[in-house]
Specification:
The protein is built from five helices and 14 strands. It is of the alpha+beta class. The protein has a single domain, classed as Sandwich (Jelly Rolls), CATH 2.60.120.650. A seven-stranded mixed beta sheet has the order 2-3-11-8-14-7-6. The longest helix has 10 residues. The chain is globular and about 50 Å long.
Length: 292
């Protein structure tokens, strides 16, 4: 893969963002964005455990979809407090998918503000995604083609982004919005998947409080990780020097207008589904999924 860095800023004006990123559909990383919130210190797993600890939450793992089973079904249920204790105490691939704040923890809505960047947001759909140290999602793009702001909390995360021009190189499953399960984007096998060598995209490392603008229809893959620092405080990029860490992601979807109201309604309805994958040996037509 041919990967480059995205532009990184500490702050940006509405005019600059609109001209150079939103209209050009170009990703942007805003460092420490959430630190300007008055209640930034409450955006952590301890606070969520305190406020939502007794909620029952459905959990999903990294296993690919089984054609004989429903891809909607969670692999387990836990109390939120037990889930948080689990992912903080040991390696786990369990994750919470599309936790809608307005329904499950509305008081958290008082603790953030939407970015003033000249874009409108679906305020019905601010959501949280939780993942243990081994959790990851397939490379995919969102069926509603909406832009969104991805704000990261707890630990560190690596994200890969590709625009739609790179689809021929990513081993997309036909009639779907994701790639085949077999591709390992952490350690790509160029002998088995030679087209990956030509995929041009972005590599982003996010830390607590960072915000990433992801344009609609961009392919995205993320993996939670925590890198051991090198001398001078710079993170070690080599896979052998990295360990993973539990984390939380907050996503605010933009009203970009690239999809019809009917498509957006279907997307909202489908958000209860996990990111279920297909291997190259499985049928690609017996079901569809709508991953985040």
């Amino acid at each position: 893969m041919i990967l480059e860095n995205v532009d990184v800023v500490n702050d940006i004006s509405k005019e600059d963002f609109q001209k150079n990123y939103f209209k050009k559909q170009k990703p942007l990383l805003i460092k420490n964005f959430a630190s300007r919130w008055d209640a930034f210190d409450l955006w952590n797993l301890a606070y969520i455990r305190e406020k939502a600890g007794d909620q029952d939450v459905p959990l999903y793992d990294n296993k690919p979809a089984d054609a004989a089973k429903s891809s909607d079904a969670p692999v387990a249920h836990m109390k939120m407090k037990d889930y948080i204790d689990t992912i903080k105490s040991k390696p786990s691939d369990l994750r919470i998918f599309f936790y809608i704040i307005t329904d499950r923890l509305p008081e958290l809505l008082k603790n953030f503000t939407y970015p003033d960047l000249g874009i409108k947001f679906f305020k019905r759909l601010p959501t949280l995604f939780f993942g243990g140290s081994e959790a990851h999602v397939l490379m995919h793009y969102d069926v509603d083609l909406g832009d969104f702001m991805h704000i990261h909390f707890e630990g560190k995360k690596r994200i890969l982004l590709f625009d739609q021009k790179q689809s021929p190189f990513l081993y997309k499953v036909p009639l779907s919005v994701h790639t085949i399960y077999d591709v390992d984007y952490e350690n790509p096998d160029y002998e088995k998947f030679p087209a990956l060598k030509y995929a041009k995209g972005y590599e982003i490392f996010m830390e607590h409080g960072d915000a990433l603008f992801i344009p609609g229809a961009f392919w995205h893959f993320n993996r939670r990780r925590e890198s051991r620092p090198k001398r001078g405080g710079r993170p070690a990029r080599a896979a052998t020097a990295a360990r993973t860490w539990p984390c939380t992601a907050f996503c605010a979807r933009c009203r970009s207008g690239r999809s019809s109201p009917a498509t957006r309604r279907r997307s909202i309805a489908s958000r209860s589904r996990p990111n279920a994958g297909w291997s190259s040996r499985e049928s690609c037509t017996s079901r569809s999924t709508t991953p985040f």
